[in-house]
């Protein structure tokens, strides 16, 4: 089955994050294309995808091979290479990509510092150009935000010429996952949707509300009018304390008793109450 897709594998060396974003007219594209491991690299495998490129490529990157060497090693050993498409970013931010000669038009790739952008069965080269140009222009933002912007820009430039169906975002960071016990910082998938990129953006906003981190110096003191406002809004929601509501809303880590709150908590309360 052909995973007609556009994707970008990328890294943020300063934040020590590696990740992949992808969209396709294919059911549950996130189950096939994206692979990433912190301080190792990121891989996107697509077209007539070879799923072994993911784990095998990460194993090679773990051994210290460069992105270019990994691409050459994987496709060189694969008799189906002419139908494959692959993008790799290594631990140093070097990138390499491959598009087999039998990939369906339009198919191609661009690479640059910290990213590999690729696609097949696209409306045209503008889709991959949009991935690359968006990434290059978005420095200073988080890797997740940059990759989501890349998907949106690529879709606006034409995207998969068959249409839209699914999208995914995978970000890896050492101890960046739930409870700091996992390296999977973000793993969001839209498996079947009319506008998957927009839905992925919505899911990421929810993810960031629950799992994002606001510097403690930016938290708000609960005093005076703000304390009264928060207490009133919590009561409107049917709770007798801020902490009890925060626990139900999965925002308990953004509340410090009745002393301080993360601004995200205030935003959530204001959205939920008149």
SSE diagram, text form:
Layout: E1 5-12, E2 17-24, E3 34-37, E4 41-47, H1 53-62, H2 67-76, E5 84-90, E6 95-99, E7 108-112, E8 115-119, H3 125-137, H4 143-156, E9 166-173, E10 184-190, H5 196-211, E11 220-221, H6 224-236, H7 242-248, E12 255-256, E13 260-261, H8 263-272
Antiparallel strand pairs: 1-2, 1-8, 2-9, 3-4, 4-5, 5-6, 7-8, 9-10, 11-13, 12-13
Helix pairs in contact: 1-2, 3-4, 4-5
Shape type:
elongated
**Sequence of secondary-structure elements:** EEEEHHEEEEHHEEHEHHEEH
Structural domain tally: 2
Share of helical residues: 25-40%
Q: What is the CA-based Rg, rounded?
A: 21 Å
> What is the CATH domain class of the largest domain?
Alpha Beta
Distance between the termini: 50 Å
Strand content: 25-35%
Strands, total number: 13
Structure explained in plain terms:
With 274 residues, this protein is an alpha+beta fold. It folds into two domains: 5-211, Glutamine Phosphoribosylpyrophosphate, subunit 1, domain 1 (4-Layer Sandwich); 216-272. 34% of the residues lie in helices and 26% in strands. The chain has eight helices and 13 strands. The protein has a six-stranded antiparallel β-sheet, with helices on one face. Strand 3 (34-37) and strand 4 (41-47) form a beta hairpin. Helix 1 (53-62) packs across helix 2 (67-76) and helix 4 packs antiparallel against helix 5. It is elongated and about 70 Å long.
Give keywords:
alpha+beta, 8 helices, 26% strand, elongated, 13 strands, 274 residues, Glutamine Phosphoribosylpyrophosphate, subunit 1, domain 1
